[in-house]
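ugh ok fine here u go
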Amino acid sequence: MEILSWSTAPFTEPTEMIGQGAARLFAEIDQPDTNFILRMWDEAPGGRRQLITTAYLKASHRELDAERTIEGDPYHPHTRAVPVEPGRIEEDLLRVYPFAATFLPGHRLVVELSNDEPLADEHNALLPPDAFHLPVGRPVTHETYRDAAHPSRLVLPFTTS
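structure:
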């Protein structure tokens, strides 16, 4: 399993986020389906990490309810599966589960994207054995895009004092 990772520079002042968010990904896969699993961490100086929140989407369930979706809060009805056309770049919106966190000076926000979950790490070791998303059952090659034509990004609930 490979994990794509991004991180901020260390925060210079306490930075608070409260609410839900969204991950807007432009991705191409070589199979009709995959999982997108996103995890957000608060990483302290020295590398100790605390899981802040997660987001999950099965690519074949990327369909949105346009009337209920707003920026930062996508709504997927999950009423049908629509296979992905292999080799086509699709826009996938993942709903980031509600969270509240204050990133302290020196801490970084780390975001990891994968298509599978590790069986044991600093978070999953605490979960019951049946708390995992099932893999799609075959290897899937992912390409994630971030450029002017494909503006992959996070929409996060920063607050102000």
